[in-house]
Amino acid sequence: MPDRQAGNKQLIALLLMTSAAVLGVLALLIYLGIVPLPTGETRGLVALLLMVAAAADFAIGLWFFRMGQST
Predict the structure, then answer these.
(1) Over the stretch 9-68, which tens digit does the pLDDT of each residue have?
(2) How far apart are CA 30 and CA 50, in angstroms?
(3) What whole-number distance in Å separates Cα of residue 12 and Cα of residue 62?
(4) DSSP string covering 7-70
(5) CA angle, corner 20, sides to 16 and 25, nearest 5?
(6) What's the CA angle centered on 54, arms 4 and 40, to 5 degrees?
(7) Are 2 and 60 in contact (CB under 8 A)?
(8) Looking at residue 11, what is its pLDDT?
């Protein structure tokens, strides 16, 4: 049974890291103005918040990956 749990944790890690990559690309596109926002003044703030969310996703993904490796 530990092998299945390790596999599940690694799958969760992969999904979280993929989510982090998508959020990071979206943040970049918003920051560069490729994805328009209704008000231009908030572009930097929205991009920053998305990058923070991407960093959190990536960190949690690393944590799950390490947990999957140790079991």
Answers:
(1) 999 999 999 999 999 999 999 999 999 998 878 999 999 999 999 999 999 999 999 988
(2) 9
(3) 10
(4) HHHHHHHHHHHHHHHHHHHHHHHHHHTSS--SSGGGHHHHHHHHHHHHHHHHHHHHHHHHHHHH
(5) 150
(6) 155
(7) no
(8) 93
